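# step 3/5: fold
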Amino acid sequence: MPKVEKTQQNARRKFLIQSSAGVAITTLPAQSVWGACNTSGLSGGSRSAGTVCIIPNVIGGRSPGSWTKFVDSGSPANVHRNKVRELFSLNGYDQTQLNTEYCNVRTYIRGLPTLTLIDPRGIVSDVSFNVESYLNDSGPEKNFAAYYLNALFGFYGPLAPLADADELIQHVWSVMLIKGDANFTGPTNTADLEFAWEGRENSTTSAYLPSGSGCS
């Protein structure tokens, strides 16, 4: 299961450094292909033309419509069995096996810990990100959750230089804040994130299938 920072202070220490030039995101190398927001853009909340903020160029994954199937209640139906077969390449599995795998994925997603998303500038209040709650939302939160799950389940492939999906989503959150695509209420514009799967939903497959005891 993904790691979560134990305290807000530790989380801030991980992603930030204080310097005379202001605040800088330190998760990424300065010239990383993933990009970052430079210190002049972060300092004092500036959104100058010199600020370079880049959402990682990841490709593939599945849309929110697919992931919301895994927060449905009740016994698995054909739509759920078909979805878990499709996402995790489980061709040849019978109905009982698909029920088990569907429930394992659902239990895993529902059990994901709430992450605290921080503003590297210290301007916007921290935001709690609960995947199940975001998937049940009808707004951009659903897209944000899908983007995270695609990374978590390996649809985007290696995330280097970032360590894992948690670091990826924190970087993306920081960029969204600088660009004005998020605020203290959560994400407000996820067009840059949706690009990952639009028109290419079946171009990648998951690298991770959680285990478990199936449907209880």
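# step 4/5: annotate
The chain has one domain: 1-216.
# step 5/5: archive (pending)
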